[in-house]
Amino acid sequence: MWDGSVTFGGSWAGYIGRADQNTAHSHVAIQLCIGVGQPATLELPGKVIRAAGVIIGPNVEHRAVAESHPVAFLYVSPDTALGRALNALLQDDGIALASDELLECFRRSTSLSHFVDALSRLLAITPPIDHRLHKALNILRLDRDGPGCVSRAAQAVGLSSPRLRCVATHQMGVSLSQWIIWNKLERASKSLAGGSTLSDAAADGGFSDQAHLARMMRRMIGMTPRTAAEVLRKTSVSFKTH
């Protein structure tokens, strides 16, 4: 069962606890999967990986295998400095094993926030994204629900819509449309965590209806909104890394 706790950060989210049923999925965020006490097991197309820690890149289909011991999942937005640093570690197949230094950084942490801060210090942070893309993403965080939001953001930063989409794909490794959907899911997830109904969470996230939210959540998270709500509303009194 999903018995752990979820933490939301500025541009990241994390879970620590046992994993349960989930279907194969892929998402925009770079995911770090770490086994707590024992290795974690992931299913990918054509292979199974069992390792102490795995970094999963954007759009890489995967499924976490349910086991009796807890795991830690950290999801980092690809437009952040940490996301870009993690992305730089990936192999050609979009996967990388976590280094001993990264795993030790996790074991020494007292919270997910502490881990994110320590990880940011550990990794060589790559140059920031294009300032026009950075500004456009901030605009889209506030104006992403209606038609024409990309055009408005592009115009505000002095780019054409096709050029903004091209810059986004080049710098983040995912399309701007995918990034927008992921951010909608993040907002809907926070709404579910706060106790909202599924229909209200869909509206809060900017989805057309509850069915739209369900489709995107299954595609990018591997579970239904109802299951996700049960996970998001659980809390844990401790943070155990070993």
TrEMBL record:
Does this entry carry the keyword DNA-binding?
yes
GO molecular-function term, one example from the UniProt record? DNA-binding transcription factor activity
Domain (HTH araC/xylS-type): residue spans on this chain: 134-231
Family annotation (SMART domains): HTH_ARAC
InterPro entries attached here? AraC_XylS_family_regulators, Homeodomain-like_sf, HTH_AraC
Task: State the PROSITE patterns in the record.
Answer: HTH_ARAC_FAMILY_2
The answer to whether keyword DNA-binding applies is yes
Keywords on record: DNA-binding, Transcription, Transcription regulation
Q: What does this protein do?
A: Regulatory protein of the TOL plasmid xyl operons. XylS activates the xylXYZLTEGFJQKIH operon required for the degradation of toluene, m-xylene and p-xylene.
State the protein's name.
DNA-binding transcriptional regulator AraC
Give the lineage: Bacteria, Pseudomonadati, Pseudomonadota, Gammaproteobacteria, Pseudomonadales
